[in-house]
Specification:
The protein is globular, with a radius of gyration of 21 Å. The chain folds into two domains: 99 residues, Glucose Permease (Domain IIA), CATH 2.70.70.10; 38 residues. The chain has a six-stranded antiparallel β-sheet with strand order 5-2-3-4-7-8, with no helix packed on it. A two-stranded antiparallel sheet has the order 1-6. The chain starts with 6 loop residues before the first strand and ends with a helix. The chain is an alpha+beta fold.
């Protein structure tokens, strides 16, 4: 769940294999990745800002440069959250789907591992950017005197 017009990002490198509208999925895109993987981003925005009219131009659905066949990279903004299709009554969100060779895969464990990896990298970056403890203590000792 997310507010309308929240940015949606590609989960992995790949090319845009499908851009469509469906009665249930609403506006959605599919990205084809290496080794038979695909990701789908469903219920994207279809509303003019400030309305629930379902009449938005596709420029309010897809990020600039996102078109059929375009290459996208992991972390690249690709679209905006909406409530299209059968999400009109459930609230704005992006249904994220991960498929391998056409079979849906529960993305939870893969997303959890990716989140933990990124969290660990972030924490390591913070540790690496701190001054060494010894230098800090020396400065404190100099002040105390």
């Amino acid at each position: 769940m997310a507010p309308k017009m929240t940015r949606v990002y590609a989960a992995a490198d790949g090319y845009i294999a499908r851009i469509e509208t469906h009665s249930l999925a609403g506006r959605y895109i599919e990205i084809a990745h290496a080794e038979g993987w695909t990701t789908k981003y469903v219920h994207l925005n279809n509303d003019t800002p400030g309305t629930d009219d379902g009449a938005a131009d596709w420029s309010l659905t897809l990020a600039p440069g996102v078109r059929l066949g375009a290459w996208v990279e992991a972390g690249q903004m690709i679209a905006w959250v909406g409530d299209s299709g059968n999400a009109e009554s459930s609230g704005s969100h992006t249904h994220f789907e991960l498929d391998l060779d056409g079979d849906p895969i529960d993305p939870y464990l893969l997303l959890k591992v990716a989140w933990q990896r990124d969290r660990d990298r972030y924490q390591a970056d913070i540790r690496d950017s701190r001054p060494p403890v010894d230098n800090h203590l020396l400065s404190l000792n100099e002040v105390i005197g």
